[in-house]
Specification:
Layout lengths: L1 H22 L29 E7 L3 H4 L26 E2 L5 E4 L3 E4 L5 H12 L10 E6 L2 E7 L5 E5 L6 H7 L12 E6 L5 E6 L19 E4 L3 H9 L3 H23 L1
Parallel strand pairs: 6-10
Antiparallel strand pairs: 1-2, 1-5, 3-4, 6-7, 8-9, 8-10
Amino acid sequence: MRRVSISAVMLVMILLIASCTGSKNVAYFQNLEQVNLEKSTGLYDARIMPKDMLTITVSTLTPEAAAPFNLIVGSSVSSTGSLMSGAGSLQGYLVDNEGNINFPVVGSIHVGGLTKTECQDLIVEKIKPYLAESEKPIVTVRMSSYHVTVIGEVNKAAVIPVTTEKMSIIEALAEAGDLTIYGKRDNVVLIREGATGKKEYHRINLNDANLFASPYYYLQQNDIIYVEPNGVKAKSSGIGTSTTIWFSFVGIVTSVASLLVNILRN
């Protein structure tokens, strides 16, 4: 009975030590009460990047005046005589590697790096010379959905489509099922590709509430989030495929040690 009690106590102590060393890094935003969230005010607007697909609509008081600026996909008829899907819809504009689009009548317009609102204002100014003053053009720009990727120590690695033009790193991790208990919350890697194609990386601490004011809180087109495994996962993977095996091993060693201690005492 004494041997069993000693074994149980030692095993519990080992488990407590392991849990204490890791649990302090599990909770998100641990310093939330000490952070001034005023710095995080302001609404986010995605900026147009090369290879984005834009849908642009021009409206005027006289529909005929706006027609030259709206590219419509031509109607087509299938072999059965039915109208093909997509007929009559607006044609998209692919932003090229230099950040330009080829807009009807006007020609090349540089839109890379602009928000939707800035792009709309720019196109209005570009088409005004071709319209009567009374027309007052209205331009609407929409960005097609893009994606971000989440891999590593999450419950469900995924390529996540962004349809609302805004996604935070917290939303992306939630879509991936959140971090596993083995994920490093204080050292998440964000890999980002800039407008010129240059790759850069940034390390993000999810334990720190200052993240809300970080320029990396909202994700951009094609961002990759990599969650590294913590030390517990690394050590357990070196011993076996499951932490259960590791704890079983510790239990056996503890029992043998307790048995030897009792034998030597007797």
